[in-house]
Amino acid sequence: MTSWDSLPMELRFMIFDYLAASGPGHLSTCAAVCKKWQEIIEPRMFRQLKPRSTRIEGLGTMITDRTRPLVQYIWLHVELPQYTCLICNRRESQSAWIRNNRLIRGALLKLFAVLSTWDSTAGGLTLELSVNSPSDTQHYFKNYCFGDGRHEARNWGGSDHGWNNGTRTRSPRSAAIGRLFEPIDLIPRQRMPRVDAVTRLVIRRHLRRRLPGSSLRTLLDKLPRLECLLFEPWREWVPSLQSLLDRGEGD
């Protein structure tokens, strides 16, 4: 019978990578087997973290001085409350918009509070931000691609919300589209602590919500060691507003 020690190192790495893809719980269990496994597994466990917005405080206790240099990428995803078909074709109400922005600001404040205690490392740290509601893909936008590119189970059947067995048959109303592109308000900025550890900020196109210049400045002001910004904003719906942004005159 083949023993673990007799396997080539490349094959061992392949097995650990498979376990990592199966979920973080599998790797953490294996890391407790022995010190040799721990040395191989922990760099894979801590290389990229995706904390839930409701469990950010746990990041401060989970990451120790020993494992901190292993962290290269943090992806903060803020999950907003779900909504029903009664309002899926409307813009967010004022109260819902205020509530959602409070959730986004709160998650960022908690994360920045944790990261403000981290020392900078030679390899730097990438921070990615994203926001959505699980309902976004359950109504008019069943083709809303989100995340790391992995396919997720979706209900493509039926003939509701302008879809018929996986094919779009009519466009959603502008108000339904606007729901996905509501602006993010990160003011007031003075409460957010400074973070020296982050050197790269990533805001990809799967963040449908608009990040106005004032909110982006709030983030950049608190990341003094930022070396790289990857920002993929969507165009404004109103051409005149986009023209202002193109000339650097809009927010």
Describe this structure in words.
The structure is a single chain. The protein is α/β, with parallel strands linked by helices and 251 residues long. The protein has one domain. 35% of the residues lie in helices and 11% in strands. A 5-stranded parallel sheet has the order 1-2-3-6-7. A two-stranded antiparallel ribbon has the order 4-5. Strand 6, helix 7 and strand 7 form a beta-alpha-beta unit. The model has no long low-confidence stretch (mean pLDDT 82).
Whole-number mean pLDDT: 82
What string, H for helix and E for strand, traces the elements in order?
HHHEHEHEEEHEHEH
Class derived from helix and strand content? alpha/beta
Total of domains: 1
Low-confidence stretches: none
* Main sheet makeup: 5 strands, parallel
The count of DSSP E runs of length 2 or more, i.e. the number of strands, is 7
Q: Roughly what fraction of the amino acids lie in strands?
A: 5-15%
Computed over alpha carbons, the radius of gyration is 21 Å
Helix proportion: 25-40%
Number of contiguous helices: 8
Biggest sheet strand order reads 1-2-3-6-7
- Bulk shape: globular
Cα-to-Cα separation, first versus last residue: 66 Å
Give a brief description.
The chain is an alpha/beta fold. It has eight helices and seven strands, in the order αααβαβαβββαβαβα.
Quickly list its features:
8 helices, two-stranded antiparallel sheet, alpha/beta, globular
Secondary-structure blueprint:
Layout: H1 9-22, H2 24-31, H3 35-47, E1 48-49, H4 57-62, E2 73-79, H5 94-115, E3 126-132, E4 163-164, E5 167-168, H6 174-180, E6 200-203, H7 213-221, E7 228-231, H8 239-246
Parallel strand pairs: 1-2, 2-3, 3-6, 6-7
Antiparallel strand pairs: 4-5
Helix pairs in contact: 1-2, 1-3, 2-3
